[in-house]
Specification:
By secondary structure, this protein is of the alpha+beta class. It contains 10 helices and 8 strands. Strands 4-3-2-1-8 form a 5-stranded antiparallel beta sheet, with helices on one face. A 3-stranded antiparallel beta sheet has the order 5-7-6. Helix 2 crosses helix 4 and helix 5 crosses helix 10. It is elongated.
Length: 301
């Protein structure tokens, strides 16, 4: 019995001050584990070290240079910007976070990162993180210079996600209307095409309209539903579909010329020029709304 008690007393316990909780997540800084509701989430070493550094200074900005010196010693040759961006992207993916609308990791444009969620240390009461340095007053003086958070890659002020998602949805609805009108009036499309192309050319145009409209309708419905339900990985899905979207959209950019006899050549040309740019606008809107998925991220092992 004595030996049993000695062994039981010598069982190691979790070191104090090494377990941090925030939201549904728990971070064990000793074992290097991230858990959500008790389930372990696989996270590579460098993204975890970024998280650990941010949790050491919640509410404070951690400079990119500090992360650089901690993650990569001075004698290590690496593309630091790409490596750090990749590590932060993987961390955000594991946390289900997004730079454009952060709940945990906030980007301080061109300077560093800040952990903004309340944290709980070793079962203590959750403490609110200090207000970010760039937080603005409800009614700032007109003459004050208000710092603006910039998108980490696009280098533009981060817009409200509702605005970017709404604009993206309107573009998809516009294309749906294009497809449906063309399908309902395909005989008229054939007549117009036949007026300036003979035989086979007109048939080719009608065939292209029917095929791309048939492909485009389910594609646009998928994108609209993805935005409506705010699918967190929509950015990655859009990135994979983008070559197909680009081809379809560029083909449909010439659609205004089917109305040239009614709106005139100049108006048709101007409308086509605008439609040629539209797929690139779609990509930018998705990157602003779903920043954490702006490039495919390999699964963390």
């Amino acid at each position: 019995m004595l030996n049993y008690r000695v062994i039981a007393m010598s069982t190691p316990e979790r070191s104090p001050g090494k377990v941090v909780r925030f939201g549904a997540f728990e971070v064990d800084l000793i074992s290097g584990e991230l858990r959500k509701n008790g389930t372990r989430i696989r996270l590579q070493e460098q993204p975890f070290r970024v998280l650990a550094m941010l949790l050491e200074r919640p509410g404070e900005m951690v400079a990119r240079e500090d992360l650089h010196s901690k993650l990569w010693p001075g004698d290590t040759f690496v593309d630091f910007d790409h490596g750090l961006n990749t590590a932060v992207n993987k961390l955000r993916e594991a946390l289900g976070d997004a730079a454009a609308n952060p709940r945990f990791v906030q980007t301080v444009a061109r300077r560093g990162y800040r952990f903004i969620a309340p944290v709980q240390l070793n079962g203590s009461a959750a403490t609110d993180t200090p207000a970010p340095a760039n937080a603005t007053a409800p009614h700032p003086p007109a003459s004050s210079n208000i710092p603006v958070e910039f998108h980490p890659e696009l280098e533009i002020p981060v817009p409200h996600r509702g605005l970017t998602r709404g604009l993206f949805t309107l573009i998809q609805i516009m294309y749906l209307i294009f497809y449906l009108v063309a399908l309902f009036r395909w005989s008229e499309v054939h007549r117009i095409a036949d007026s300036f192309l003979s035989g086979g050319g007109a048939i080719a145009i009608v065939t292209a309209v029917l095929v791309t409209a048939g492909m485009g309708i389910p594609l646009r419905c998928y994108l609209i539903s993805g935005v409506a339900f705010d699918h967190l990985r929509l950015g990655e899905k859009f990135h994979r579909l983008y070559p197909v979207i680009l081809i379809i959209d560029e083909l449909w950019a010439i659609a205004p010329f089917l109305l040239a006899e009614k709106i005139g050549f100049g108006a048709a040309f101007a409308a086509t020029a605008g439609l040629l740019y539209l797929p690139f606008s779609e990509r930018s809107l998705i990157r602003m709304a779903y920043d954490s998925s702006r490039r495919p991220v390999a699964s963390s092992e």
